[in-house]
Amino acid sequence: MVLRLRVRRFTCEDVSCGRRTFVEQVAGLTRRYSQRTERMRSVLADVGLALAGRAGARLADVFGARISRNTVLRLVDSLPEPQPQVLRVVGVDEYAMRKGRVYGTVLVDVETRRPVDLLPDREAGTAAAWLAEHPGIEVVCRDRAPFFAEGARIGAPTAVQVADRFHLWRNLGEAAERCVSRHRSCLRVTFTESVPEKAPAPAESGSPWPTGHRFADRTRAKHVAVHALLAAGHSRRSIQRQLGMTYRTVQRLADAARPEDLFQGQWQNRKTKLDDFKPYLHERWAEGCTNAWTLWEEIKTHG
């Protein structure tokens, strides 16, 4: 849509004036040197208030208004200052400009939950002077800091001082803790001695890997999972994708009727040629001989 607006142009007859011509401005529609309508300017300013510069510029680009983050911030800075309202309930708290070193005071309108002002320090005199400049304050909500209490007493002597919800619960918790500490001797705890029951011995199994061996338990769990999916009608390729195994592993587990058929290799407790020399090898290892070739030469001499 194209909007055509006809306005009047005025000429200044004063030769010493720096501006020779003047164009009539329509309130609420045009602005001098403006590149966008007042409606678009208002929308972009609202976006800047909500999202600030960088995020506001990205959102404006979505609905076709390509502007920089600096322009968004300039639009926010050009907004008129909000008219101060009569404060009735004020919240006073400290904030850190440099944690542990420099602190200031923030004042909030508790009814609207909007910040009102920032003070450069947290001294009682500064808070009292600010409260004295704002008559009509009925309630001062503060923490337990003594300088805020003194500032509220001096600056707003007729106002009621209350604690905020956080410090109210904190005071209650500390009071309850002190009460329990004073009556600690009244607390008696009776312990009943109980003999721990012995765990049942694992059942004897003919498996070379007893229950509780991590490799055996892992193999048994995989075997159960594969055969459960096979019984449910899944193919081996489907089981491979679901369990994250290789096809060869799924094939071995599926072909084994029981998990004990898979217990083969170095972890199986079967007899080896080193069984007769293990006591000697353990003894030499404990003595500090950790060279495999030396140990091999020594057991060769023992047959």
Topology:
Layout: E1 9-11, E2 21-23, H1 38-62, H2 69-77, E3 89-98, E4 102-109, E5 114-119, H3 124-132, E6 139-142, H4 146-155, E7 160-163, H5 165-182, H6 214-231, H7 236-243, H8 247-255, H9 278-287, H10 292-301
Parallel strand pairs: 3-6, 6-7
Antiparallel strand pairs: 1-2, 3-4, 4-5
Helix pairs in contact: 1-2, 3-4, 7-8
Structure summary, number of beta strands: 7
Largest sheet: 5 strands, mixed
**What's the rounded overall pLDDT mean?**
82
Percent helix, as a range, is 40-55%
Question: N-to-C terminal Cα separation, in Å?
Answer: 103 Å
Supply database-style keywords.
elongated; 10 helices; single chain; 303 residues; five-stranded mixed β-sheet
How would you describe the overall organization of this protein?
- This protein has 303 residues and is of the alpha/beta class.
- It has four domains: 9-78, no CATH class; 89-166, no CATH class; 213-267; 271-302.
- The protein contains ten helices and seven strands.
- It has helices spanning 38-62, 69-77, 124-132, 146-155, 165-182, 214-231, 236-243, 247-255, 278-287, 292-301, and strands at residues 9-11, 21-23, 89-98, 102-109, 114-119, 139-142, 160-163.
- It has a five-stranded mixed sheet with strand order 5-4-3-6-7. A two-stranded antiparallel sheet has the order 1-2.
- A hairpin with a 4-residue loop joins strand 4 and strand 5 (114-119).
- Helix 1 (38-62) runs antiparallel to helix 2.
- The longest helix has 25 residues, at 38-62.
